[in-house]
Amino acid sequence: MPSVRSLQSDAFAPLYHHYNRLVASIAANFPLSPQQQEEVCQEVFLIIWEKKEQLVHEQALASWIGTVTRHRCLSEMRRMRPMVALEDLSEEVLHARPENRQASSFPSQSWHLELSLRLLQQLIDSHRSPIRRRVAQRFYRDGQSVAAVAADLGLCPNTVLSHLRRFRLVVEKSLVRLLDEQGIDLESA
Q: Containing H/E element for 111?
């Protein structure tokens, strides 16, 4: 097999044939359509081609390709998930009693999603740390990627991830405290 760093267009084919099954098998483990799986495979090999000069250790190539494939699959899943803007949720819907809702227009899952989004918005708005509040607003409410939030706020992506993690910890503690105050046991619910 040719060295990755010395890849020419004619030497790329053996590399593709050698690792194609690995990439395809990893992509098959994700809930993606066959077309999406094929697109992920193409993107992975495009990344290999673009980063060939940076790949130093030939022994770690299979592991690196596996990691890239998993990340591309997860990115594709995130890209395909439905997004609901908090601003699109009407006050009437959020404050309506469950028995007054029309079952056909607001299924149970949608109702729970709306309430969860409302609660999340309240938790973001009431968060004490201004920078963490801005990070959470951009990531959760506006749907920006970590890289976009980092660029907008002039932060390192790892700092954004750290703020998001700390925000989630505060949210978790708040929810646990609320459940305890209300006497709600999740295991029996």
A: helix 108-125
User: In the 8-state DSSP scheme, what is residue 58?
Assistant: G
pLDDT beneath 70, residues of the chain: 1-11, 56, 81-115, 182, 184-189
What is the C-alpha to C-alpha distance for residues 38 and 69, in angstroms, rounded to an integer? 11
Tokens 């193409």 -> residue: 42
Q: Using one digit for the tens of pLDDT, what is the confidence trace for 39-71?
A: 999 999 988 888 877 776 777 788 888 889 998
pTM above 0.85, yes or no: no
Is 72 within 8 Å of 44 (Cβ atoms)?
A: yes
Cα dihedral 14→15→17→23 (10° resolution): 180
Report the distance separating Cα 30 and Cα 91, nearest Å.
Answer: 37
